[in-house]
Specification:
The protein is mainly beta and about 120 residues long. It is built from 2 helices and 5 strands. It has helices at about 30-35, 75-80; strands at about 5-15, 25-30, 55-60, 90-100, 105-115. Strand 4 and strand 5 form a beta hairpin.
Length: about 120
């Protein structure tokens, strides 16, 4: 993760992607070292991300499209083409946000991890 202290995170339950019960979360992502260095404490609002095999990429999108997962279609297409089976929660970490000078739209650059079986 290039941001060493904290970053915005977005997760989506890809095992239930086609169901109305599919859940997404927006929160903060922080490395364990910095969690303790900042004096933060665990609670029911804190969850740990465990290591697993993932497909890793950097994506461009905007604030309107993040909930629709349209930006993730090329990632899923790549996984399918290479016979990889996504599972669990897709995770993104915001790298930077910029304003497109032509359209005026917000452009987000995110690092994304797609967990694999």
């Amino acid at each position: 993760m290039p941001i060493t202290s904290a970053s915005l995170k977005y997760t989506f339950d890809i095992d239930n992607i086609d169901k109305p019960s599919a859940s997404s979360e927006i929160g903060m992502l922080i490395e364990e070292e910095y969690f303790y260095r900042f004096g933060l404490e665990t609670s029911n609002r804190v969850s740990e991300i465990y290591y697993s095999k993932c497909l890793h990429s950097v994506i461009l999108g905007d604030g309107d499209s993040i909930g629709k997962l349209d930006w993730a279609k090329p990632l899923f297409a790549y996984a399918n083409k290479h016979h990889l089976r996504p599972t669990g929660k897709l995770l993104t970490s915001l790298i930077f946000v910029n304003i497109d000078q032509v359209t005026g739209k917000t452009v987000c650059c995110d690092e994304v991890w797609l967990p694999l079986k």
